[in-house]
TrEMBL record:
Record-given protein name: Retrovirus-related Pol polyprotein from transposon TNT 1-94
Positions of region (Disordered): 1-25
PANTHER family assigned to the protein according to its UniProt record, in alphabetical order: GAG-POL-RELATED RETROTRANSPOSON, PEPTIDE SYNTHASE GLIP-LIKE, PUTATIVE (AFU_ORTHOLOGUE AFUA_3G12920)-RELATED
The species this protein was found in: Araneus ventricosus
Compositional bias annotation for Basic and acidic residues: 16-25
């Protein structure tokens, strides 16, 4: 992945609706390890990866080759955006502040 072509988005819109085929997963690729590494990166410094890690975590038991393609795309995104980050600017010294975020209810069928 060191010399891979970077991409501007971690996932494509179609990536969240992948239907599992009858194809059995191949255990030849380190899917679980890659998702774990992305999760460590997400928790420490990259909250922009949270949605991707959540989608990929749904397939940890039986990953398909399509899931592995998504992992590789996320890794290409990380490679191309290693110098980007979130910057919080303020005019006044306010001290500690609180941030809130909402969960992803788009895929909730209830």
């Amino acid at each position: 992945m060191e010399h891979s072509k970077p991409v501007s988005t971690p996932m494509l819109k179609e990536s969240t609706n992948i239907e599992k085929s009858d194809e059995q997963s191949s255990k030849t690729f380190p899917f679980r390890e890659a998702v774990a590494a992305l999760m460590c990166l997400m928790i420490g410094t990259r909250p922009d990866l949270a949605y991707c890690v959540g989608v990929l975590s749904r397939h940890l038991d039986n990953p398909s080759t399509d899931d592995w393609v998504i992992v590789k795309r996320v890794l290409r995104y990380v490679t191309g955006s290693y110098n980007k980050g979130i910057v919080y600017k303020h005019k006044y010294k306010l001290g500690l502040f609180k941030c809130y975020s909402d969960a992803d209810f788009r895929l909730c069928k209830a």
